[in-house]
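sry for the spam today, last one i promise. struct tokens for design, 356 residues
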């Protein structure tokens, strides 16, 4: 339905297409202070990064959407955007900027123009110049639909500030603005919505029943005043109350609480994960064994290759085989079966690794 009214119907059943690899902010998030050059390859959340990720056998990319003060959905992760002029760092809230003001940051589409020097504030409070090997201008949600490889699905994270309490009226306005762009430009592209903001997640489900909605949770790795955000058990409640289709959990929360997987499946919910451990092939394989349906990863090339070897799937436009010979040379692998004792041992081992 259109985003003009509420939809209280039962959610449509949803399943990921096999075990899915999802590119985090495209071809991986940027960590400017990291010594690993892979974290500074492509500007995160850019058209260039999205299309770079599309070259690998993945099903979706994940990116963050906020709405400017003049009602344009743009793709940017951080709540605040920084620039530097004459040695002075300036800070602006993304949602307080107009579209034209937002697009002035970083490289410009017109080669003859120079944008504001884009900076980024790290979690440690350090403000660094946002330098990557392959830079690209900031972009809108509409541009992503128009310019990104059409076979690639979009996992649209609806981004809100953790420190702000939002009124329902404001959330409805923002979500309808995003939905209008999706309905106008998505065509037949697969789209999933997700949000850490429980009210926003439930509202976007109320506003439409065309696209599945997932609730994002830190699963207890970070605690919030809103209890709904603090555990997988609470995440299940949010989904069932709001008729959502799935959960996206920080992966360590799942490894620490593996019994929650069965509860999630019993509730007819899908389960995806995100987090640094998803850049480790062995941790991804363990999730495949456990029945998790997909992983959001930064190292798209490496993990997508590992998953292709782990589970050969029939070729499709969104997940082609890497080479014609691979299917002949590698036996098709079905989901391996382990005894509960073996799984418990592996989970205990992983849990011990997580603590260190």
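last one done:
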């Amino acid at each position: 339905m259109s985003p003009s009214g509420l939809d209280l119907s039962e959610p449509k059943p949803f399943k990921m297409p096999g075990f899915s690899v999802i590119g985090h902010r495209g071809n991986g998030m940027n960590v400017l202070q990291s010594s690993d050059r892979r974290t500074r390859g492509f500007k995160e959340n850019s058209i260039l990064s999205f299309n770079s990720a599309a070259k690998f056998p993945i099903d979706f990319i994940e990116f963050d959407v906020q709405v400017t003060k003049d009602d344009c959905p743009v793709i940017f992760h951080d709540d605040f955007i920084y620039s530097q002029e004459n040695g002075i760092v300036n800070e602006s809230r993304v949602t307080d900027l107009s579209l034209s003001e937002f697009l002035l940051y970083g490289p410009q589409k017109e080669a003859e123009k120079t944008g504001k020097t884009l900076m980024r504030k790290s979690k440690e409070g350090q403000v660094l110049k946002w330098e990557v090997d392959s830079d690209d201008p900031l972009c809108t949600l509409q541009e992503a639909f128009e310019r990104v490889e059409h076979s690639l699905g979009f996992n649209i994270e609806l981004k809100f500030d953790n420190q702000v309490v939002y009124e329902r009226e404001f959330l409805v306005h923002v979500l309808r603005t995003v939905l209008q762009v999706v309905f106008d430009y998505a065509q037949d592209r697969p789209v999933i919505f997700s949000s850490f903001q429980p009210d926003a997640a439930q509202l976007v489900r109320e506003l439409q029943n065309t696209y599945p909605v997932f609730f994002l949770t830190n699963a207890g790795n970070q605690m919030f005043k809103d209890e709904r955000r603090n555990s997988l058990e609470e995440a299940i409640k949010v989904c069932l109350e709001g008729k959502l289709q799935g959960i996206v959990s920080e992966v360590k929360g799942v490894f620490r609480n593996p019994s929650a997987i069965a509860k999630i499946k019993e509730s007819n919910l899908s389960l995806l994960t995100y987090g640094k451990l998803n850049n480790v092939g062995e941790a991804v394989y363990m999730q495949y064994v456990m029945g998790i349906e997909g992983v959001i990863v930064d190292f798209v090339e490496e993990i997508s290759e590992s998953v292709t070897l782990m589970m050969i799937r029939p070729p499709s436009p969104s997940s082609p085989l890497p080479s014609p010979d691979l299917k002949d040379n590698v036996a098709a692998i079905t989901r391996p079966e382990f005894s509960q004792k073996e799984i418990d041992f592996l989970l205990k081992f992983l849990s011990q690794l997580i603590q260190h």
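Residues 20-77+140-355 form a domain with the TIM Barrel fold (CATH 3.20.20.190). ok im logging off now
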